[in-house]
Amino acid sequence: MDHPETHNYSACAAQPESARLFHRKDHLRQHLRLFHQGCNFNDAMKSWLSSIDDVRSRCGFCDAQLGTWTERQKHLALHFRAGTDMREWKGDRGFDQQIEDLVENDMPAFLIGDQRRTMEPFSASRVDHRISTYDLSPFSTNEASPGQNSRGSEVPHSHQEVQRLLLQYVSTEISQGHVPSDRQIQRKMSEIIYGPDNSWDSTWADNPQWMDMFRKKAGLISLPLSGGKNAFIGF
């Protein structure tokens, strides 16, 4: 028997292509271990990685519309070389939904400038941003292409997971006849990220742009002159 056959090569090759494509490295590792008799990921397999370049997006500094990932990287590099800071970013990245669904371990770009100056700066290379500090250079253009994600299992410190839990909290409160205020949303986010007995009182929810975005997702509007109270208007 040829060596490849001892690792179920033919059986794998007979599978449809969709069953042999993996968007995350940990899924590929699991496939190798279970289907291919304990094979481990090695350096030679790095050539299997492919990335997506045909990605539509926008620039939050000048609102330019960008058609490819390469164009995006070059465009942002020009801004950074001119001294533009991430604190100047406005709005989202403008990805199509199918690309947005591939992005993992992420937070809105407009938060990154503020996060760089905290005790726990954001890094796309770390899932739990409490593990260590990371000096994110304002000249860095090393955004990971959406097709190059290699994150492990979801933890409640990724932006998407925190937002999901916070939306769940708002939905539960509304079902019980109570609309959470901005302050209650901020405290709940702190509890989700740092635990119920924490004394840390600084989260993404302190950013007005983030709070506006979250209210829209939760079907809330801010009541004027109410001290941060909200009303539920539906989705």
From TrEMBL:
Amino acid composition bias (Polar residues), ranges on this chain: 137-152
An annotated Gene Ontology molecular function: DNA binding
The keyword DNA-binding is annotated on this UniProt entry: yes
Superkingdom of this protein's organism: Eukaryota
Region (Disordered) location: 137-158
UniProtKB keywords: DNA-binding, Homeobox
Name this protein carries in UniProt: Homeobox c2h2 transcription factor
